[in-house]
């Protein structure tokens, strides 16, 4: 296992580290990579497939000087109100650290080293499933996942030192405010749940050490940090980002993790953009967006937390049907009938 020591990075650099380490994890010889970045907010960090305007009020964020950025991993949004830490774990395949891990158990197996690290730093940790880790029984760390078609996996863990991770109500869109993401618990800043003597640097290192120790793999210094491409991680201003330009009106559906959303895309064959709060691989949603033309998929194809394949297929079909209706209407000249 290769590790990089915790380092202060701009938030865009910390987010760019994920794809860079994923490339390294795939390289020969394939090996897991782990790093920690100390970052500064404020910022809202959206999941890779969350439509911006469904999650945040972009005007309110701009007025308060809070950039909205997007990470490479799927899942729900994290608010960084001040100092924070981002752990980046890149795996060449789902069982690279935990031999018994599968697509279904990816997070459950790989989060255990993080739990040990938080506990060693003085905050007993618990993972109840899906997207967050509780410290001292309060949500305090958020998970993101990207699972590539070739089997490589990127896991990111976000935690805020000075403010809880929940998007503040004054910055959140109505659909975001409608979801109880924390199951009735009050999210916590790290400063509220860690011993006063524990620095952010010490916590970052404790978690890296614990993940590496639990992996029971030879640990190798990763050497120089990779060159980082920060361009994709700059502030977002388009409300429908990341839906492609020309996508139709979004349709949404409630699922256990929050929301999923879809929009018909132009061109032939008919396709839909699929997004939302789910933890999965982007390629899986792209495939499901092909509707009836999608390749056969099952629950073991890729990690999927927070919604079912049936939920996603149904929403993709709704978007495709809505897109077909719009095309038919335009083709008829917008008239309800003929004489």
From TrEMBL:
InterPro entries: aa-tRNA-synth_II/BPL/LPL (IPR045864), BPL_LPL_catalytic (IPR004143). It comes from the Bacteria. Residues 15-131 form the BPL/LPL catalytic domain. Gene3D superfamilies: Bira Bifunctional Protein, Domain 2. Pfam families: LplA-B_cat. This is BPL/LPL catalytic domain-containing protein. It comes from Sorangium cellulosum (Polyangium cellulosum). The lineage of its organism: Bacteria, Pseudomonadati, Myxococcota, Polyangia, Polyangiales.
């Amino acid at each position: 296992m290769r590790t990089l020591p915790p380092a202060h990075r701009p938030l865009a650099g910390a987010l760019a580290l994920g794809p860079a380490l994923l490339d390294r994890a795939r390289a020969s010889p394939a090996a897991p990579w782990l790093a920690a970045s100390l970052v500064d907010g404020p910022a809202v960090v959206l999941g890779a497939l969350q439509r911006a305007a469904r999650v945040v009020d972009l005007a309110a964020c701009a007025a308060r000087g809070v950039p909205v950025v997007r990470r490479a991993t799927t899942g729900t949004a994290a608010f960084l109100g001040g100092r924070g830490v981002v752990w980046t774990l890149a795996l060449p395949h789902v069982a690279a650290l935990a031999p018994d891990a599968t697509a279904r158990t990816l997070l459950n197996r790989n989060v255990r080293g993080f739990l040990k690290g938080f506990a060693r730093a003085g905050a007993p940790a618990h993972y109840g499933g899906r997207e967050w880790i509780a410290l001292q029984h309060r949500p305090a760390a958020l998970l993101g996942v990207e699972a590539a078609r070739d089997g490589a996996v990127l896991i990111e863990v976000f935690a805020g030192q000075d403010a809880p991770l929940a998007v503040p109500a004054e910055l959140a869109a109505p659909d975001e405010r409608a979801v109880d993401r924390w199951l009735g618990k009050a999210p916590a800043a790290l400063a509220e749940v860690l011993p006063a003597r524990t620095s952010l640097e010490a916590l970052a290192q404790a978690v890296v050490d614990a993940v590496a120790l639990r992996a029971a793999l030879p640990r190798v210094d990763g050497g120089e940090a990779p060159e980082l491409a920060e361009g994709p991680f700059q502030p977002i201003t388009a409300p429908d980002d990341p839906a492609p330009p020309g996508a139709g009106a979004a349709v949404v559906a409630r699922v256990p993790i929050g929301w999923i959303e879809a929009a018909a895309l132009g061109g032939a064959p008919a396709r839909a953009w699929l997004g939302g709060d789910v933890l999965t691989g982007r390629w899986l949603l792209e495939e499901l967006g092909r509707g009836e033309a999608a390749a056969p998929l099952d629950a073991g194809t890729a990690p999927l937390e927070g919604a079912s394949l049936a939920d996603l297929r149904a929403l993709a079909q709704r978007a495709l049907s809505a897109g077909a209706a719009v095309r038919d209407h335009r083709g008829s000249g917008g008239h309800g009938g003929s004489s």
